[in-house]
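Entry 14. Ran structure prediction on the chain below.
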Amino acid sequence: MIDMERRKRVMQRSIKLGHCICDPKKPCPCDLFKEKNICLCAGERLESPTGDVRLTQLVEKAGCASKIDQAFLKEVLRDLPAVDDPRVIVGVPAGDDAGIYDMGDGKALVQTVDVFTPSVDDPYMFGQVAAANSVSDIYAMGGTPMTALSVLGFPVRKIPDKAMNDILRGGIDKMKEAGVAIIGGHSINDSETKAGFAVTGMIDKDKVVTNSNARPGDVLILTKPLGTGIVAFASQIGRARAESVEASTASMTTLNKTASQLMVKFSAHACTDVTGFSLMGHLSEMALSSGVDVEVIWDAIPLFDGVLDYAAAGILPGAIERNKESCSDRVVADDSLPQEMVDICYDAQTSGGLLIAIDEGQADAFLKALHDGGVSAATPIGKVLAKGSGIVNIRRTGTREIPTAEPSEPAKEPASLEQPATAVAAASKSEEVACCADAVSSDSPEGAGVAQIKAKFKDFLGAASAPQGLDAFTKQAIAIALSVAMRCEPCIKMHLKNAKKKGFTQDEIDEAAWMGISFAGSPAMVFYEQNKNS
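Output, structure tokens:
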């Protein structure tokens, strides 16, 4: 039941200030109040949506691709004061996976925090991925995770409440599998869903594995396939195969616990987990910190099913370009490798595997132990060459076939530097373009020449309606204004429908319509009033 006295008191305060007290960017009364008679500032609540939700469709960047890139972080952090504490064994300047703090008696605390957007659609699975990814930094140092605090951002009442419960439940179940106790947490009302954990573990001081001790002759072993970012992006745009998504999800929810325990047992020299900065980002950092040059065999890198085909088709997320900006100056790739294939090595991984540098004499026994322990994807991908300046060489042996793009999907030149041809293609669907060409009945008699003319005209309309210099929202508003000014009934019906799909409010639709009325006069006003609810 609405508390009208409270509502009146709060709204009077907002109106007097000229700003909504919940969101100062909005006026009072706000659009939500006008449309649904709900005042959030007065403590009134929207009903929770129901039904299934696809989390990756509600975020801009999926998984660890949502993280700030490595180059930007280094630039921003470089002038911060160093922590002057002799008990800090590994801190921020090391750029390692977790911090190490000396607790005395040969024991040390190992701590990390990791938060990101969904890399999978299912909320419960996302919670599991978030937990597995967060404890991975502890495993990468050779530590044992003990406790965790959950960190959650959630768009309250914009997606079903159950999704939040499922995310937390997935995280709890995965942390329980890792032997980690969740002892608290923090949550915020955020426009995008985000989840992660701050994790604390213990480690013996003499068994810490850092990313800065790789030695010439070491074998580089990767314990999980690459391609989670590419698969997530392919899924976002409806191009992923089910087997790719299933394999990627299974990998992301798998703990790096066994691999960590075995690398400590076999005295690995160095380790890092491969996550948002990509294989090249993390490996180049290991090489630089260790003062060595390394070599990776591209054909040996384990990949998820479909990743090669996605890359060949240009299905490569933007995080790849950001990672290239951060470290490509230290990467030298074989000239015979197409750029799309090299780009796979820059793909931002979510809950990726451990990248381990181990003595060549131990490598075979270590690899067998990994396979016997269930880490079946573990693969030698290269070696440490010699002392150097942190250069990563990507070599090709020719044992892996490089696919080519399907003939049915040829590469297209961008319509402009800002708007790629895919945007034109997406906007040229029949429900998105101007509708006058569709006013003629599809079964009306017409010769082949007329049909061809009509088809070309529809293609022209699609190109004209596609976002280029003007964005899709602006062009939709123009279409409404022109439909009203021209008094085209099929046009206004279709464009009103499309505007509502794009999230136009009624006020925005009316404003666009009145632009047309201002040019066409009273007849246009009558026309719009007759058709606005169609």
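The first helix runs from residue 4 to 17. Will compare against last week's run tomorrow.
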